[in-house]
Amino acid sequence: MKKLLLGMCLAFMVLLAAGAGVIYSGVVSVAADDPHGSWVHGILETARERSIESHASDIAAPPLDDEAMKVAGAGNYASMCASCHLAPGMQETELSKGLYPSPPNFVSSDMHGEPEERFWVIKHGIKASGMPAWGKSMQDEYIWQMVAFMQELPDMSAARYTALVAASDGHQHGGGETAQSPSSHHDDDTRQPHHAREADGPADLQDSHEPEGSHEPKENHEPKDSGRAEDHPHSSHDAEHQH
Protein backbone atom coordinates (compact mmCIF):
# COMPACT_ATOMS: atom_id res chain seq x y z
CA MET A 1 0.00 0.00 0.00
CA LYS A 2 2.81 2.38 0.86
CA LYS A 3 4.46 1.70 -2.49
CA LEU A 4 1.19 2.39 -4.29
CA LEU A 5 0.69 5.70 -2.50
CA LEU A 6 4.30 6.65 -3.14
CA GLY A 7 3.92 5.80 -6.83
CA MET A 8 0.74 7.88 -7.10
CA CYS A 9 2.44 10.83 -5.42
CA LEU A 10 5.42 10.59 -7.75
CA ALA A 11 3.16 10.36 -10.80
CA PHE A 12 1.24 13.42 -9.64
CA MET A 13 4.45 15.37 -9.10
CA VAL A 14 5.70 14.41 -12.58
CA LEU A 15 2.44 15.54 -14.18
CA LEU A 16 2.49 18.76 -12.18
CA ALA A 17 6.06 19.49 -13.21
CA ALA A 18 5.27 18.70 -16.85
CA GLY A 19 2.25 21.01 -16.78
CA ALA A 20 4.27 23.80 -15.21
CA GLY A 21 6.95 23.32 -17.85
CA VAL A 22 4.42 23.60 -20.68
CA ILE A 23 2.92 26.77 -19.20
CA TYR A 24 6.29 28.38 -18.50
CA SER A 25 7.60 27.53 -21.97
CA GLY A 26 5.12 29.93 -23.57
CA VAL A 27 3.80 27.42 -26.10
CA VAL A 28 0.24 27.90 -24.86
CA SER A 29 -1.34 30.51 -27.12
CA VAL A 30 -3.31 33.31 -25.49
CA ALA A 31 -4.10 35.02 -28.81
CA ALA A 32 -7.73 36.05 -29.25
CA ASP A 33 -7.64 34.91 -32.88
CA ASP A 34 -6.54 31.39 -31.87
CA PRO A 35 -9.66 29.76 -30.33
CA HIS A 36 -9.53 27.19 -27.56
CA GLY A 37 -9.76 23.53 -28.42
CA SER A 38 -13.27 22.08 -28.25
CA TRP A 39 -12.62 20.33 -24.92
CA VAL A 40 -11.20 23.48 -23.30
CA HIS A 41 -14.11 25.52 -24.66
CA GLY A 42 -16.57 22.98 -23.30
CA ILE A 43 -15.03 23.05 -19.82
CA LEU A 44 -14.98 26.86 -19.68
CA GLU A 45 -18.54 27.18 -21.02
CA THR A 46 -19.90 24.69 -18.51
CA ALA A 47 -18.05 26.39 -15.65
CA ARG A 48 -19.38 29.80 -16.73
CA GLU A 49 -23.00 28.71 -17.08
CA ARG A 50 -23.05 26.82 -13.79
CA SER A 51 -21.40 29.71 -11.95
CA ILE A 52 -23.91 32.23 -13.29
CA GLU A 53 -26.82 29.93 -12.44
CA SER A 54 -25.57 29.42 -8.91
CA HIS A 55 -24.81 33.06 -8.13
CA ALA A 56 -28.08 34.35 -9.61
CA SER A 57 -30.30 31.80 -7.86
CA ASP A 58 -31.19 34.14 -4.98
CA ILE A 59 -32.02 37.15 -7.17
CA ALA A 60 -35.69 38.08 -7.68
CA ALA A 61 -36.51 40.05 -10.82
CA PRO A 62 -38.99 42.94 -10.66
CA PRO A 63 -41.76 43.23 -13.28
CA LEU A 64 -40.01 43.86 -16.61
CA ASP A 65 -42.90 44.62 -18.97
CA ASP A 66 -43.08 48.34 -18.17
CA GLU A 67 -42.55 50.49 -21.27
CA ALA A 68 -40.82 53.25 -19.28
CA MET A 69 -38.20 50.74 -18.12
CA LYS A 70 -37.53 49.67 -21.70
CA VAL A 71 -37.17 53.28 -22.83
CA ALA A 72 -34.71 54.04 -20.04
CA GLY A 73 -32.77 50.84 -20.71
CA ALA A 74 -32.54 51.56 -24.43
CA GLY A 75 -30.33 54.61 -23.97
CA ASN A 76 -27.84 52.79 -21.77
CA TYR A 77 -27.81 49.73 -24.04
CA ALA A 78 -27.09 51.92 -27.07
CA SER A 79 -24.22 53.60 -25.26
CA MET A 80 -22.70 50.71 -23.33
CA CYS A 81 -23.61 47.42 -25.05
CA ALA A 82 -24.41 47.81 -28.74
CA SER A 83 -20.80 48.06 -29.91
CA CYS A 84 -20.23 44.46 -28.75
CA HIS A 85 -23.68 42.84 -28.69
CA LEU A 86 -25.07 44.81 -31.68
CA ALA A 87 -28.55 46.24 -32.21
CA PRO A 88 -31.37 45.89 -34.76
CA GLY A 89 -30.21 47.18 -38.15
CA MET A 90 -26.58 47.36 -37.02
CA GLN A 91 -23.67 45.62 -38.75
CA GLU A 92 -20.84 43.84 -36.97
CA THR A 93 -18.26 46.11 -35.37
CA GLU A 94 -14.53 45.75 -34.92
CA LEU A 95 -15.16 44.88 -31.27
CA SER A 96 -17.80 42.24 -31.95
CA LYS A 97 -15.55 40.59 -34.55
CA GLY A 98 -12.29 40.89 -32.61
CA LEU A 99 -13.25 39.79 -29.10
CA TYR A 100 -12.80 36.20 -27.94
CA PRO A 101 -14.91 34.62 -26.65
CA SER A 102 -17.20 36.29 -29.19
CA PRO A 103 -19.84 38.42 -27.44
CA PRO A 104 -23.34 37.00 -28.00
CA ASN A 105 -25.43 38.77 -30.62
CA PHE A 106 -28.65 39.60 -28.79
CA VAL A 107 -30.44 40.47 -32.04
CA SER A 108 -29.90 37.48 -34.32
CA SER A 109 -30.47 34.77 -31.72
CA ASP A 110 -32.47 34.26 -28.57
CA MET A 111 -30.70 35.11 -25.35
CA HIS A 112 -30.02 32.19 -23.05
CA GLY A 113 -30.76 32.23 -19.37
CA GLU A 114 -33.24 33.94 -17.12
CA PRO A 115 -33.57 37.71 -16.49
CA GLU A 116 -31.96 37.24 -13.08
CA GLU A 117 -28.91 35.69 -14.74
CA ARG A 118 -28.61 38.56 -17.21
CA PHE A 119 -28.82 41.00 -14.30
CA TRP A 120 -25.99 39.18 -12.51
CA VAL A 121 -23.78 39.13 -15.62
CA ILE A 122 -24.31 42.85 -16.30
CA LYS A 123 -23.60 43.74 -12.68
CA HIS A 124 -20.59 41.49 -12.05
CA GLY A 125 -19.15 40.86 -15.52
CA ILE A 126 -17.29 37.71 -16.61
CA LYS A 127 -13.58 37.15 -16.12
CA ALA A 128 -11.29 37.05 -19.17
CA SER A 129 -14.18 37.60 -21.59
CA GLY A 130 -14.22 41.36 -22.19
CA MET A 131 -17.52 41.65 -20.29
CA PRO A 132 -17.15 44.49 -17.72
CA ALA A 133 -18.66 44.55 -14.23
CA TRP A 134 -21.02 47.47 -14.83
CA GLY A 135 -22.20 47.27 -11.22
CA LYS A 136 -19.10 49.18 -10.14
CA SER A 137 -20.63 52.34 -11.58
CA MET A 138 -24.24 51.39 -12.31
CA GLN A 139 -27.06 51.23 -9.78
CA ASP A 140 -29.32 48.16 -9.72
CA GLU A 141 -32.44 49.93 -10.97
CA TYR A 142 -30.65 50.94 -14.16
CA ILE A 143 -29.39 47.40 -14.69
CA TRP A 144 -32.95 46.09 -14.44
CA GLN A 145 -34.02 48.68 -17.01
CA MET A 146 -31.44 47.27 -19.41
CA VAL A 147 -32.65 43.74 -18.70
CA ALA A 148 -36.23 44.82 -19.46
CA PHE A 149 -35.09 46.34 -22.76
CA MET A 150 -33.04 43.26 -23.68
CA GLN A 151 -36.08 41.00 -23.20
CA GLU A 152 -37.52 42.42 -26.40
CA LEU A 153 -34.31 42.60 -28.47
CA PRO A 154 -34.57 39.28 -30.39
CA ASP A 155 -37.90 40.35 -31.93
CA MET A 156 -37.24 44.10 -32.10
CA SER A 157 -37.29 45.94 -35.42
CA ALA A 158 -34.75 48.61 -36.33
CA ALA A 159 -37.52 51.23 -36.27
CA ARG A 160 -38.62 50.20 -32.78
CA TYR A 161 -35.01 50.27 -31.55
CA THR A 162 -34.46 53.73 -33.00
CA ALA A 163 -37.66 55.03 -31.41
CA LEU A 164 -36.81 53.65 -27.97
CA VAL A 165 -33.28 55.09 -28.01
CA ALA A 166 -34.55 58.47 -29.23
CA ALA A 167 -37.16 58.56 -26.44
CA SER A 168 -34.61 57.73 -23.74
CA ASP A 169 -32.49 60.10 -21.67
CA GLY A 170 -29.37 58.62 -23.21
CA HIS A 171 -26.43 57.44 -21.14
CA GLN A 172 -27.52 57.78 -17.51
CA HIS A 173 -27.26 55.24 -14.73
CA GLY A 174 -26.46 57.03 -11.47
CA GLY A 175 -22.73 56.35 -11.59
CA GLY A 176 -21.28 59.78 -12.35
CA GLU A 177 -21.52 59.33 -16.10
CA THR A 178 -21.96 62.24 -18.48
CA ALA A 179 -25.61 63.07 -19.05
CA GLN A 180 -26.47 63.08 -22.72
CA SER A 181 -29.56 63.90 -24.68
CA PRO A 182 -31.19 61.39 -27.05
CA SER A 183 -29.76 63.34 -29.98
CA SER A 184 -26.18 62.96 -28.74
CA HIS A 185 -23.46 61.08 -30.55
CA HIS A 186 -23.95 57.66 -28.94
CA ASP A 187 -27.53 57.51 -30.25
CA ASP A 188 -26.46 58.13 -33.82
CA ASP A 189 -23.44 55.85 -33.53
CA THR A 190 -25.40 52.78 -32.47
CA ARG A 191 -28.02 53.17 -35.18
CA GLN A 192 -25.47 53.34 -38.00
CA PRO A 193 -23.31 50.50 -39.33
CA HIS A 194 -19.88 50.59 -37.74
CA HIS A 195 -17.85 51.23 -40.89
CA ALA A 196 -20.26 53.91 -42.02
CA ARG A 197 -19.59 55.76 -38.77
CA GLU A 198 -15.84 55.73 -39.40
CA ALA A 199 -16.37 58.09 -42.30
CA ASP A 200 -17.66 60.76 -39.94
CA GLY A 201 -14.12 61.96 -39.35
CA PRO A 202 -11.93 62.99 -36.41
CA ALA A 203 -14.51 65.32 -34.88
CA ASP A 204 -16.93 62.48 -34.20
CA LEU A 205 -14.13 60.27 -32.93
CA GLN A 206 -13.03 62.98 -30.51
CA ASP A 207 -16.59 63.32 -29.16
CA SER A 208 -17.14 59.57 -28.83
CA HIS A 209 -13.99 58.99 -26.77
CA GLU A 210 -14.33 61.73 -24.19
CA PRO A 211 -13.97 60.31 -20.64
CA GLU A 212 -17.11 60.12 -18.56
CA GLY A 213 -17.66 63.19 -16.47
CA SER A 214 -15.25 65.23 -18.58
CA HIS A 215 -17.79 67.83 -19.70
CA GLU A 216 -17.22 71.03 -17.75
CA PRO A 217 -19.03 74.36 -18.17
CA LYS A 218 -17.19 76.58 -20.59
CA GLU A 219 -16.23 79.88 -19.01
CA ASN A 220 -15.20 81.67 -22.19
CA HIS A 221 -17.30 81.70 -25.33
CA GLU A 222 -16.02 83.19 -28.56
CA PRO A 223 -18.48 85.45 -30.39
CA LYS A 224 -19.97 83.89 -33.52
CA ASP A 225 -18.64 86.72 -35.68
CA SER A 226 -15.10 86.72 -34.26
CA GLY A 227 -13.57 86.07 -37.64
CA ARG A 228 -12.34 83.23 -39.74
CA ALA A 229 -9.95 80.56 -38.46
CA GLU A 230 -7.30 81.83 -40.90
CA ASP A 231 -7.28 85.22 -39.11
CA HIS A 232 -6.86 83.60 -35.72
CA PRO A 233 -4.25 80.87 -35.92
CA HIS A 234 -4.60 79.94 -32.24
CA SER A 235 -8.40 79.55 -32.29
CA SER A 236 -8.44 75.84 -33.18
CA HIS A 237 -5.79 75.12 -30.55
CA ASP A 238 -7.83 76.92 -27.87
CA ALA A 239 -10.98 75.06 -28.90
CA GLU A 240 -9.28 71.74 -28.38
CA HIS A 241 -8.35 72.68 -24.81
CA GLN A 242 -11.94 73.64 -24.05
CA HIS A 243 -12.91 70.03 -24.58
From TrEMBL:
<keyword id="KW-0479">Metal-binding</keyword>
<feature type="compositionally biased region" description="Basic and acidic residues">
    <location>
        <begin position="184"/>
        <end position="243"/>
    </location>
</feature>
<feature type="region of interest" description="Disordered">
    <location>
        <begin position="169"/>
        <end position="243"/>
    </location>
</feature>
<keyword id="KW-0349">Heme</keyword>
<dbReference type="Pfam" id="PF13442">
    <property type="entry name" value="Cytochrome_CBB3"/>
</dbReference>
<dbReference type="InterPro" id="IPR009056">
    <property type="entry name" value="Cyt_c-like_dom"/>
</dbReference>
<protein>
    <submittedName>
        <fullName>Cytochrome c</fullName>
    </submittedName>
</protein>
<dbReference type="InterPro" id="IPR036909">
    <property type="entry name" value="Cyt_c-like_dom_sf"/>
</dbReference>
<keyword id="KW-0408">Iron</keyword>
<feature type="domain" description="Cytochrome c">
    <location>
        <begin position="68"/>
        <end position="154"/>
    </location>
</feature>
